[in-house]
Each structure stands twice: as C-alpha cells, then as structure tokens.
Design brief:
This protein is of the alpha/beta class. Helix content is about 40%, strand content about 20%. The chain folds into two domains: about 60 residues, no CATH class; about 220 residues, P-loop containing nucleotide triphosphate hydrolases (Rossmann fold, 3-Layer(aba) Sandwich). A hairpin with a 6-residue loop joins strand 3 and strand 4. Helix 1 runs antiparallel to helix 3 and helix 6 runs parallel beside helix 8. The structure holds adenosine-5'-triphosphate, magnesium ion and zinc ion (2 copies). One of its GO terms (molecular function) is ATP binding.
Length: about 325
C-alpha cells in the first residue's frame, strides 16, 4: 500500500544524515540507541496525527458486490517510533553503534562468509517464522559483535522484530545481583527465553561454575524447545583441530602432543558449554569459524589509522 512506502523527501533526494532510512543509531552512554532523523521529525504523510485513512475494497456479499470503504491505519511514523523504541530495548553496546553490513570488511574468505551468512539471515528473515540462526567463532576484534549488531539492527528497525542482545558474563552477573535482591533466576531468564530473536555474545566465557552452566542450559533449552531463533558469537573454537598421527612416535614426542591436544581441547566451545548445549547449537545454527590469523581490527586500526583517527561519537547510520 502506498502509505507504507517511505516518505519521499521534499527535494526528492535521500537525506544525507540517514541515507533515507529516517532513523539514526548513535552512542549514548554505554549503549547504542536509535532515534528519528531530523529529516523525518515532522511527518508529511499524516501531518503528525500518527495514523492515516486508507481506502480499501472488499466484497462482503455477492449480492452487493465489491464495496469501497475507509480504514484507519498506523502511519509509517508511528511504525518507526515503535521500531525505534524496540531497538532501544535490545541492549546493544555503544562500541558497535556504527556497525553495519556495509562497513564490515572481510580480510579473508571466512570473514566474507560470516558477513554473507549474517546478511542472508537478516534479509530472508520472516517475522514470526522459523529461522535457523548462526554462530560466529573467531579471535578477538574480528567483527563478531559487529555482525550481531548489524543483524539485530536490520531485524528490529527494518522488520519490527523484537530482539535482545546479551553478553553472557554480564547476564550471569545480572542474575547473581538479582538473587541478592530476592529475584529468582527465572525472572531474568524468562523474557530472554521468549524474545523472538536473541543474540548471545561471548558464549563459553565465564568460570564454568554449576550456576553458570545451569543458567545457560536453561536459556538455550527453553529457546530450543520453543523453536526460537538464537544467534551467537564466541572466541572458542567450533571444530577440533586435526590431531597429529601419533602411532610410531617416540615417547617424548607423544607427551608433547598430548599436552598440545589438551590445550586445544580447552579452546573448544564443546568443552566449554558441554555436550547438551553443543548438540542443540548444531541444530539451531549455521557455523562460521574465523581462522586464528584473522587480523584484530582494534589493533590494526590503532596501528594504521592512528594519525588520522578521530574520536568516534558522532551520529552514524546503520546500513544494510
Ligand atoms: N571486519 C571488520 N570490518 C569492520 N569493522 C570491524 C571488523 N572487525 C572489527 N571491526 C570493528 O572493530 C571493533 C571491534 O569489533 P567487534 O567488537 O565486533 O569484535 P569481536 O570479534 O566481537 O571481538 P571480541 O572477540 O573481542 O569480542 C568494532 O568497532 C568493530 O566495528
Ligand atoms: Mg565481541
Ligand atoms: Zn534523515
Ligand atoms: Zn505520520
């Protein structure tokens, strides 16, 4: 319907600030928050009423034939306000307020695939429908949180999906604090189990205590049982590395290899979260693993852009 289309700008050009998206995402305190762009502050579609009259045609009975009638519909500006307030409930950190699919750079094939998987997920997503999520595994500063943020931004602001982002160790801390205030773990886990799309960052982090394992198990099992979509990022490895053949090796060599493979096991997500959770992840998610030598953007930016680097903080828009 015509009124659902984006309002054209008076001069016919897309706004230079929001690129025609009508909203911007910026850092406020430690959060990434969205707001309506100045270009769309005064709605030209509804004149600020928030709703519009739309003409429809329908046949109520064969005898009478098709009839035209008018209905009151939400204006795009009302829809945008709803989506913006939903975005502001997601809980994305300020450090990825600029993150978009457009400004993600791939330095290797795996990063290119990671971007592709996230982009495809976001663009094929149908609100309320079942959708297989993804898990990004890789070393620090390779844009895993960046891609989670770009995906959630698209889902919430372009499709109106309800989403949440949690960093796992902050979640454990929040629940522990809740205990002290007399809240049950379920009070905090409940809404996260039910939200349409949940992104869990830093999966595998923590002390691996029984409390942490039970919390994670409950959250993932509840989402799994309800068929809900969950996205993940982790520094832990998804696949066991190929082990050296140890058959005819001398004892000393074997010992070193044993030590090495034990070290590798400690890097495995499967070891960190346990078989129950790992098995569910296999069904819930498309796996993307970034190799160990993927460059850390925090460091490369520091080293290469330092002389030209300006403090971030201005309005940035979310691309697609
Ligand atoms: N491939 C990339 N393209 C563009 N920007 C990137 C890329 N990788 C990282 N960045 C930027 O570098 C910063 C750190 O990235 P991000 O937080 O997404 O890393 P991460 O993989 O989640 O790291 P960690 O494992 O430490 O959580 C962010 O500002 C992010 O936008
Ligand atoms: Mg991260
Ligand atoms: Zn604008
Ligand atoms: Zn309006």
């Amino acid at each position: 319907m015509a009124v659902r289309e984006m309002a054209p700008k008076a001069n016919g050009e897309a706004c230079g600030v929001c690129g025609g998206r009508t909203y911007v995402i910026e850092r406020r305190g430690d959060q990434a928050l969205a707001r309506t762009c100045e270009c769309s502050g005064n709605c030209s579609v509804c004149g600020g009423r928030g709703h519009v009259l739309v003409e429809r045609e329908a046949e109520f009975s064969q005898k009478v034939g098709p009839r035209r009638y008018e209905v009151m519909e939400q204006c795009v500006c009302t829809q945008r306000r709803t989506r913006i307030s939903r975005f502001n409930e997601v809980g994305l950190p300020a450090v990825v307020s600029h993150a978009s699919f457009d400004n993600y750079r791939a330095f290797n094939e795996a990063q290119d695939r990671g971007r592709g998987v996230a982009l495809h997920f976001a663009h094929q997503y149908v609100k309320g429908g079942p959708s297989k999520g993804f898990i990004l595994s890789g070393p620090v500063g390779t844009g895993k949180t960046h891609l989670l943020a770009a995906t959630l931004g698209h889902l919430v602001l372009e499709l109106g999906v309800r989403g949440r982002y949690v960093e796992i160790s902050l979640l454990y801390a929040t629940i522990r604090r809740g205990f002290q205030e007399g809240k049950s773990g379920g009070e905090i886990i409940g809404p996260l189990s039910e939200v349409e799309v949940l992104a869990i960052d830093e999966l595998g982090k923590g002390r691996g205590s029984p409390f942490e394992m039970e919390t994670l198990d409950e959250l993932i099992a509840r989402r799994y049982n309800a068929g809900r979509t969950t996205l993940f990022a982790t520094n832990y490895s998804l696949e066991p590395e190929k082990r050296a053949v140890r058959s005819a090796a001398p004892t000393g060599y074997r010992t070193t290899e044993d030590a090495r493979s034990a070290a590798r096991d400690a890097d495995l997500l499967r070891e960190r979260v346990g078989e129950r959770i790992y098995s569910r992840l296999c069904e819930l998610c498309t796996f993307v693993e970034l190799p160990k030598d993927t460059p850390d953007r925090r460091r490369t930016r520091q080293e290469m852009d330092a002389p030209m680097h300006h403090a971030a903080g201005g309005s940035r828009t979310l691309g697609r």
